[in-house]
Fold these 2 entries.
Entry 1:
Amino acid sequence: MNEFVRKAEGTALPWSKEEFEARIRAVGAERYHDKHEFHRMLHGGALNKNQVAAWALNRYCYQEAVPRKDAALMSRVYDREFRREWIHRIHDHDGLLPEETGGIERWLKLTDCLGLDRGYVTSMRGALPATRFAVEAYVRFVVEQPLVVAVASSLTELFAPSIHRERIAGMLANYSFVNDDVMAYFKRRLSQAPRDADFALEFVKENARTREAQEACIDAVRFKCDVLWAQLDALYLAYVVGMIPPGAYRPEGT
């Protein structure tokens, strides 16, 4: 049997769209960061105000990177209808003045409430090194991977509404220093994330047409889960265990 025949016989057929979607969703069931101990502590009221501030400060780096990631992805796309849909993501985060201030502004209301100076937050000087490395790895991934794989990396949004609902309820119930107004970011994402995820999922299911492409898309969702998980590992090590690296945010008294 020649090499060509062996390769042809070893080529797996693509999954059906239904099975492909089920495999994508299974990644969230296994790996999404709602299962991380730091999130359990955050939502359960086990953190103090300084630890919550450290989380919000570091998470700002991710919030800031998301519209840059989406702009980079759009720069690769020739399909105007795709760009018209995807640009909502940038408006959601950066705002579309005058009527929409955007998710980053809503996030800064949270860091304001936690006593963090806006200039310090937006400078990202106090962020953990692992946070910065993780979020920039995500931006680079979207720039460098095939388009359908880059789009697939956003599909952690499929799993986001449940964590937002849990966060809203848990933080309002357990922390006196937060209120409905400062939880506005998460409330807005309850409607934004499903809209974005539905579009991305249909695009990926339609355009990942080989088993190899489908597997690469699933790996992209795993990668994105790793990006989110790594940020929480760093937070836990620094602000629960106490191994705060030089230059990172250091609450008073630590």
Entry 2:
Amino acid sequence: MSPRSIYHADKGLQFSKIRLLLIHAHPVPESFNSALLQALIEAARIKGHDVRSIDLHAERFNPVMSADGRRGYTEESQIPADLARHVEALQWAEGLIFVYPTWWYAQPAILKGWIDRVWRPGIGFTLRTRDKPMRPALLNIRLIGVITTFGAPWWFWPLLIGAPGRKIILSGLRYCTAPRTKTFWMGLHEMESQTDAARRRYLDRVRARISHIPL
């Protein structure tokens, strides 16, 4: 057993320190979402986790699936040069946490495009064949979390719309990871009308959640 890990008889293998990959998707550097990212990074490093972060807007990630990109979207194709660092980071990570605002009930376009292009066959999953079913490929990932904000009240998003953004990550992406991957979801609703005190409390909740990783 790795010296990085500990064992709980009731929960199986758990990690005392894990490799955390943080994916951030907000175009405004001084936004509250950027403050959430910084709180997350600080809390994770205090606990001794190995942290990497990818700020999709800061690095001007291209979310568009081009015609050539779609033609080459197979397990056998060479990974495009602009995706190599992202693929390597996914394969390095043990935990994956997304920080983004929920826009139109789901992820911002840049993040959805990142999922479309990076979680490709041979990286996120293996393609189904006549003889074999589709299978997950990111078995190194055992934790997925989301820290997000909403403009709508808490009841509107899940009850009337069906929480599509949550399903994309905690069901869809989770399928591509280890069978017993743990998940968490945190959201601050009615963001535009929240007080500074409410936003500080949410930041504190984020720090507290990260301090208890592994879950």
